[in-house]
């Protein structure tokens, strides 16, 4: 199957409420949607969320890489349909570069968000064309239970969110921490939700090794199930030092972008958990490869998300979370709980107790509304279908 045209939509969808962590606060989604059309007229959608402090990609550089490197590779390929192959093998057959010769000095770790946008669009398009759901390629083992995430706002604001999540009966909550009044914050949240709810924290790299160790010790009283990315991405040995000195399981997020990162973290005994995120890790194929490696090394995996992701990444994350043999926690599918409007015709967000059923329907299983892509696009780029 040949892909005959591609359109990129750089979106700006306002949030219902601003979301902050230690690195930045945002009040709208800046997702990029990739729309591909196959020779038979089938249309598929993918999504990239570029984060300079994660993979090094920005919206502008991501769009450029898509145009310069990914689109030429995609339009010159002839894709084989999925006919029952093992998922990593078939996904691996979708030729999608994550680097190019223009990379020197860009500070980009890997063009994973860009790759994810194209990979998901291809998967959606090729599976839809064959009338197959992603749930057939990745058969679901369970319904998915989503976590609430509490943004790094005031402690009163955090407690208000915690109480709202308790009303929703969410069993798992992640709290963004910054190094300011962490103990008071966790004490107030633990008091608000009671002893049964699972709490975990995410530092987004705001701490030094010593600070991370001291904070984990200070928070140990509040039954914290994992501490995510307390220190910045760097030498895995440093994270191993934090893990060795802490009773709270450490989880790698920004430190885990590529398969090579996963191998290095495992070799160093750096952590007990990996946060897998599709846009960060380069799409379904690379993420499944990391999950396989994690499983064989006894590392727990969490399926994470991008703040401000739309129904496209949420749908792909749902399939991934329902399929993986074991996951510790899952995040995402906030949909219109966070976005003023989500892109899918039917709402994707989770329900009471954070529960959401596996998605059916061809491709990713969500129907994307082109009218909303146009409504929220800051920039629409139609890529040339034939070589000039
Ligand atoms: Mg994180």
What coarse outline follows from CA principal-axis ratios? globular
What share of residues are in beta strands? 15-25%
Tell me the quaternary state: single chain
Which ligands does the model contain, each kind named once?
Answer: magnesium ion
CATH fold descriptor of the largest domain: TIM Barrel
Q: CATH class of the largest domain, please?
A: Alpha Beta
Concise summary:
The chain is α/β, with parallel strands linked by helices and about 400 residues long. The protein has helices at about 60-75, 85-90, 110-130, 135, 155-165, 180-195, 210-220, 235-245, 260-270, 280, 285-295, 310-325, 370-375, and strands at about 5-10, 15-20, 25-30, 30-40, 45-50, 145, 150, 170-175, 200, 225-230, 250, 275, 300-305, 355, 375-385. The protein is globular and about 60 Å long.
Write the layout of secondary structure elements.
Layout: E1 3-11, E2 13-20, E3 25-29, E4 32-38, E5 43-48, H1 59-75, H2 87-92, H3 112-129, H4 134-137, E6 144-145, E7 148-150, H5 155-167, E8 172-176, H6 182-193, E9 198-202, H7 209-219, E10 224-228, H8 236-245, E11 250-252, H9 259-268, E12 273-276, H10 278-281, H11 284-296, E13 300-303, H12 311-323, E14 355-356, H13 370-376, E15 377-383
Parallel strand pairs: 7-8, 8-9, 9-10, 10-11, 11-12, 12-13
Antiparallel strand pairs: 1-4, 1-15, 2-3, 4-5, 6-14
The structure holds magnesium ion (MG).
